[in-house]
Design brief:
Strand order of the largest sheet of chain B: 1-2
Number of domains of chain A: 1
CATH topology of chain A: Helix Hairpins
Number of strands of chain A: 0
CATH class of chain A: Mainly Alpha
Number of strands of chain B: 2
Helix content of chain A: over 70%
Number of helices of chain A: 3
Distance between the termini of chain A: 55 Å
Largest sheet of chain A: none
Distance between the termini of chain B: 28 Å
Strand content of chain A: under 5%
Radius of gyration of chain A: 17 Å
Largest interface: A-B, 42 and 43 residues
Order of helices and strands of chain B: HHEEHHHHHHHHHHHHHHHHH
Oligomer: heterodimer
Largest sheet of chain B: 2 strands, antiparallel
Shape of chain B: globular
Structural class of chain B: mainly alpha
Number of helices of chain B: 19
Strand content of chain B: under 5%
CATH architecture of chain A: Orthogonal Bundle
Order of helices and strands of chain A: HHH
Structural class of chain A: mainly alpha
Radius of gyration of chain B: 21 Å
Chain lengths: ~100, ~475
């Protein structure tokens, strides 16, 4: 029997992978992918809780989150394209022109 | 389920959206030569009209969309705050594009979008509304930050802001999902009832900390501050001004709604007030210490804005009505002070193409009004009487002391002394040091007027605190 805790553990694992990805990835594209994982983890727990609590609000919220995630990625990719054109790199650790 | 919508509760948001639509149509239809300046004039005019309209909205109170949207004295206060901030930002934007000749159409549209986001944040009464309005604001700010796309600093700032901003909204969402799972709702009033009847459990603490991380990111409190210096330095100056005033105040509007007296998590105040106090102490100390070593004025103001977030957190840690109204009042003073400083920085960098503090040497001999406004703004940021910053700091420290945080009050006082050092170092450069070039900087009459208005506001709020402090108290009492 798969209960709420399985879904929550899975979403916790996905969230952790996302955080680890954001921290360790050198490529900005990989960072963006990891950020998507964060939102996906939240979506999973929203749906699981919604099913568990027996109301549909959680599933409705997921739709809004998907839209927000799409908007965020669109902006992110646009900036990555500009980065590639003007700075000739998509490596996060080469973004170090500004330092105190 | 039938949802009744009271359209009269959010006319301001509707009018802002209408302005946005009008600007989009203007952008498409008008010839290039005409719309170059007119987008700015229309934005500015609409903003002034909206500010006038806002004054008539004081009595409009209630909630709609099944309690997801609330109009009360706090949202009224913050909407006026955002409109005034935008007024300055539009003036700066107009000036900015006069000097740089970039594409300006989308810039205005994104600024209006950010304004809608900020107004909705102030009116959110549900975590879903809050999340979406937060994203409306931050996503438009990502684009605005990276707007001067041929400038590598701007791009770098945009990318860093996007990564850390998306990370913080991921935290917010994850925390919100747990809160929803536990309380069966995302509405503030339902969660507030839960909070006041249940003890704090590890899982709710986890959710609360995650949500605070997102708020901390917006207000630039210490563990979540990494983006601030880079983004402040790299973003176009009007956007930096908006970030330092509008976006930060939006964060504090959320903080007041969630963590302050009468807020969603108010019943657990005892458990987390110490955490907030420690965070406040670390934030102000870090901001002030690192600000001392800066050479770029925008970066310096970034660190100074971190330290001001620390001062403001004192009011939240105090958890009293006094603390909350002191935060509101402090933000009012901070609004004019910071906008005046950034306006000077913008005008200076247009004339000299530089943001370096060393280039401010001898500014007093080149332009008296720029030097005077900067001096006044810096003195107010440092908290010198009788300027706006002084009474705000006084009220915040008093609220911390009354709630038993004597050590925090002492740390704050020590910090104010430390901050005097680097604020006055800039003042010394401006007034005492010899200028590198003696060519005078001419300031046009409209800009002079704006600078003088800002100066009057800084001094006026400091001397006649009464009505402003009353407004701050009223905003809290009607929450």
């Amino acid at each position: 029997m798969i209960g709420i805790e399985h879904y929550l553990i899975l979403s916790g694992i996905i969230f952790t992978i996302g955080i680890a990805g954001v921290i360790t990835s050198r490529s900005v594209l990989k960072v963006l992918l990891s950020l998507e994982l964060l939102l996906a983890a939240s979506n999973l727990s929203f749906v699981a809780f919604s099913r568990y609590n027996g109301d549909y609000a959680g599933q409705a919220i997921v739709f809004f989150v998907i839209i927000v995630a799409a908007a965020e990625v669109a902006i992110g990719l646009a900036i990555i394209v500009l980065m590639y054109r003007h700075l000739n790199t998509i490596q996060a650790d080469e973004l170090k022109d500004m330092k105190w | 389920m039938f949802v009744s919508i009271n359209w009269l509760l959010f006319p301001l948001e509707l009018l802002i959206t209408l302005t946005l639509v009008v600007l989009v149509v203007m952008d498409v239809l008008l010839p290039k030569t005409v719309k170059k300046d007119w987008l700015g004039y229309v934005s500015l005019g609409a903003n002034v009209l909206l500010l006038g309209f806002w004054t008539t909205q004081r009595e409009v109170i209630g909630n709609t969309f099944n309690g997801m949207f609330v109009e009360d004295s706090l949202s009224w206060f913050f909407k006026g705050f955002f409109l005034v901030a935008m007024l300055f930002v539009f003036v700066m934007t107009h000036k900015f594009f006069k000097a740089t000749e970039g594409r300006r159409n989308e810039f205005y549209l994104l600024l209006w979008l950010a304004l809608i986001g900020m107004c909705l944040i102030a009116s959110s009464a549900d975590f879903l509304t809050l999340f979406i309005s937060l994203e409306i604001l931050t996503i438009s700010l990502y684009v605005l930050t990276a707007y001067t796309k041929s400038d590598k600093f701007s791009l770098e700032a945009g990318m860093k802001y996007l990564i850390l901003g998306a990370l913080s909204s991921g935290f917010f969402l994850y925390g919100m999902s747990f809160l929803y799972g536990i309380t069966h709702s995302t509405r503030f009033d339902v969660i507030q009832q839960y909070v006041s009847s249940q003890p704090l459990t590890p899982i709710t603490l986890f959710a609360m900390v995650l949500i605070f991380a997102a708020v901390g990111f917006k207000i630039a409190a210490v563990p979540f501050h990494m983006w601030v210096p880079d983004v402040y330095q790299g973003a176009p100056t009007p956007v930096t001004a908006l970030l330092s005033v509008g976006s930060k105040a939006a964060g504090f509007a959320i903080l007041l709604r969630l963590f302050s007296v009468g807020g969603v998590f108010a019943a657990w105040h005892f458990e987390w007030s110490m955490a907030l106090a420690i965070l406040s102490a670390i934030t102000m100390t870090y901001g002030n210490l690192v600000a001392m070593f800066q050479t770029n004025i925008k970066r310096l103001l970034g660190y100074s804005s971190i330290s001001h977030a620390g001062y403001l957190l004192m009011g939240a840690a105090a958890g009293s009505a006094l603390g909350a109204s002191a935060m509101n009042f402090y933000l009012l003073g901070y609004l004019f002070t910071n906008l005046a400083a950034f306006l000077v920085i913008l005008l200076f960098s247009i004339a000299t193409k530089s943001d370096e503090i060393s280039d401010f040497a001898g500014l007093a001999q080149r332009s008296g009004i720029l030097a005077g406004t900067m001096l006044l703004a810096l003195a107010s940021l440092a908290g010198m009487p009788p300027l706006a910053g002084f009474f705000g700091k006084f009220a915040l420290i008093m609220s911390a002391m009354k709630s038993g945080f004597l050590w925090l009050a002492l740390i704050a006082s020590a910090n104010i002394v430390v901050s005097l050092y680097y604020y006055l170092m800039i003042a010394k450069r401006i007034y005492v040091d010899a200028p590198r070039s003696t060519s005078p900087i001419t300031i046009s009459v409209p800009m002079r007027t704006v600078l003088i208005i800002a100066m009057i506001a800084i001094v006026g709020i400091g001397i006649f605190q009464g009505p402003f402090f009353n407004a701050a108290i009223t905003a809290i009492s009607g929450m």
